[in-house]
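Q: What does the assembled structure look like for these inputs?
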Amino acid sequence: MRRKTKLPGGVEEQTGRSWPRNVVAMMMRMKARMSLPRGREEEQPIRRKEAKPRTVMRRTVMWGKERRERREEGRKERRRKKKRRPRVRRTPLNSLTVVYAGFDSVCPFLPSSSDSNSNSSEEEESMSEGEMARLMEEVEEKKKLIANIRNKPWRMQRRLKLLKEAQEFVDKFEGALGKGKGRKWYAYKVMMTKKWIKFQRDFENFRTACIPWERKIKEVESHFGSSVASYFIFLRWMYGMNLVLFGFTFGLVVIPEVLMGLPYGSIPRKTVPRAEQDTAQDYSVLMDFNGYCKYSVLFYGYYNDQRTVGVLKFRLPLSYLMVGIGTFGYSLMLVIRTMAKNADVGGGDGEDSDFTFAWKMFTSWDYLIGNAETADNKYASITTSFKESIVDEQENQKDENIHLRRFLRVLANFLITCSLGGSGYLIYFVVKRSQEFATRDDLSWYEKNEMEIVMSLLGLVCPPLFETIAELEDYHPRIALKWQLGRIFALFLGNLYTFLFALFDEVNTKLEEEQSIKNASIWAMKEYYANYSRLMNDSEATPPPMDPADVIRGPCWETAVGIEFVKLTVSDIQVSYLTILIGDFARAVIVRFLNYCWCWDLEAGFPSYGEFDISGNVLGLVFNQGMIWMGAFYAPGLVGINVLRLLSSMYYQCWAVMATNVPHERVFKASKSNNFYMGLLLLVLFLSLLPVVYTIMTLPPSFDCGPFSGKDKMFDIIMETIDLDLPAFMGTLFSYAANPGLIIPAVLLMVLAIYYLNSVSEAYQNSNMELKKKMKMARDEEKNRRNNADTTNQVMKDLEDLLPNRSLIPPAPPEPEKPPEQEPKPKPTKTKPGTAGKGVNLQKDVALASSNPNARGPVSRPPGPRGPGPGPGAGPGRGRGRGPPPR
Amino acid sequence: MQTAHIEFDCTYFTRKEILLFYRYRDLAPQLVPLDYTNHPDVKLPYELIGSMPELKDNPFRQRIAEVFSEDGEGNMTLDDFLDMFSVLSEMAPRDLKAYYAFKIYFNNDDFICKSDLEKTLNKLTRNELTEDEVRMVCEKVIDEADLDNDGRLSLEDFQHMIVRAPDFL
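A:
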């Protein structure tokens, strides 16, 4: 309102003022005014191209108003030019590199802020509301275009051109959106947005540059297909996770203890006992992690139970417990997050075989293959798989073969169960014998190491045996791999748990032993003091403390457990490296060079070169990780050892696979969602969580070693912290929280929530299945109508037989049926759950599903309007989707 | 290499991978100038493109090159080259890949019809299937994937089918 009255005055003022000025000023102004319309016309094409019909209409309506505004805008433009010039000069530098897909994340706050600006400065500035809105809309549109340009299937040149235009447009008019007082702030915000986006872009670049071994893995991938590469990707993921665990353990436990704790030799737990000192540096002793290794930061026993260490008052025992628990927490979170992400990416799980042939046809080629030999294998495997499918399809009706196969599969599973049971018994037997041996001293080398030998032998023999048996089953290699993994997993699990039970036996005996040693230790200490005062005849003198090497020690079961795990890990590393060296490398060398002087062709014939054993390697990795998780609490150094192991095995195995192995005979692709590995890992994580949590919660810590010595239970350290360091009300709060009356309802609530979510997801699945079925039905129906054949539906056929007159009734005219079929289409797309983001497909699904299966009229055209296509100008002939004429 | 900055925004590449230009140039150092400021009109013939290690063993290399080249004959400018690798890179979204995969598999019209399928199948299996088998497979494929029952696959059919495939990367 106010603007209207102001406007003429403004013009008058302007002209009135211009008279007394000198000619130059007037000339300049005239020039500016004259040049302005031209400037607008230059912009016009860009805008008009983008403007929607709606805005064009408004334009014509508002024409009269706009002429006034144009003049006004001229003034404004001049003013703006003055202000904006310095910024304009700066922006092009950024604008080239800056604009990036992250824009949409920043955009939301732009319109709102400029809105408030325009409201507050309505009086001073004079751009109409409509103009403003339109401009903003266009800028937003351009920004969206810039953000999405990479998704458009356009030629590069077209993309470049459009991108440049859009960027110029945005640069030019973005400044116009903020006005008055808010303008500087707005400009600042825009600038910061750009800076932020540039930073993100650079960071992204940096991150990709930091992904380790990308090139190595790609090379393996090109030679062996993606299934072998998936192992290395898994290895890399594992390495990353262990690096984080390593950071926690070393940063919060090991390094504080080394830097701020008491030095070696100051207290008994940090000193090698007198009896062991002679041999403490022997190589064999050190290799068994006894001697100096045992009394070092690598193991639990070395840590002191001082409440705080150093000038920083670092609470080491608390930190030790927290890191132990945090290791599990972090790993769980990471594994589950990765699984969820994978499940998201995986799209539809390929279980339903609606598209067997189509998928085989279009997706069986592995585009990552870049090696002639692998390509040959791939061709062969594709051909076989096609032939298999054809045979399957042909013999779908005849079921005799199915029976045979079923029988074979049952037989195979029976055999494998037998061998698993046998190996389980063998392990049990050996463990029993070893307990027997433990009481004797005169043992041969074999008797000492019987358990390890039997376990390694089982690990060596069983997997190939399973593989041989699995030949009977004749699964697709990807499914066969899963079965194989599952079976070996069961075997390893047996090994692991026998090991654990043996360990627990040991721990229990040590715990019994400990009590007597504790008494003896206290007794010895007392005796020492008594002797001292008796010898000196001076009961007042304070005796010098006993030499820490002479104090009687407890067995310290925690360190013993830690040593077991470290030993196991190290021997596992040795075995796997030696296996590669002998089983792959030596074999390859022999096959390669003995082939010149041998009776038969070694390369093509019997020994041949080794294939890369994906399942064995993955399982080895998973179980190794389980060892780390279990052992890390009792041996903080284990994580460091593991990081070294993963690092070295990355290089070693990459080299080994490239140098000694040949591609698989049946090359198959790893599916993108390798949640199977992750599932195994999660299972192992859970299984390794159990014993550790059990020991933390129930077993009493040793009295003279480790950060929890002197406590009844390890978690007492938390109670102590709550009591001593936190304000009193926190203590009461915790005691309330720990009340069973509160915990049980909480657990109940969680169970209910899980139940609810589970049933909801089930319902979604059901509705999904229902829709799929409907879709299929509609398709079949339509197909039959097209073929002018009977319905496949037997019931309908029978019905039609029952109604002989029905065939005489003329079919309903097709026209009236079409509209109702298309109308309800858009609605269900919104309400249908669980399948967001696939607008195009969805519409089709629903349209097909909702079409009446009994409709008589041939609906020969596909559903009409579609969601946004891939964009205009993608190629010649944009007529697709309109549907062909009915045949 | 002035345009490199802009091409970040159009492709799925990071700075490291933009060095693709040098790959392009290495194919024919005598043809490609180092200086791209004036947008010289340079094209590499298909023979060179198809001999890259990435494509050398691919049965569809000719179709790929044809689809991405502007002239439709497999001769590529730098822009086409970047386009191709951008779409084939891991970062590209599935929809975009599906679109180009569709273009790779059909021949002239905008539909995949039976003859296209037969050609594809023969490329995949190196002509080792008999004619009957080929015909049967093609019929099955159309039967499975053709949603609107016009006897050929449109882009929508194709996308619907392929984004669900576990193997489609």
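Residues 15-88 of chain B form a domain with the Recoverin; domain 1 fold (CATH 1.10.238.10).
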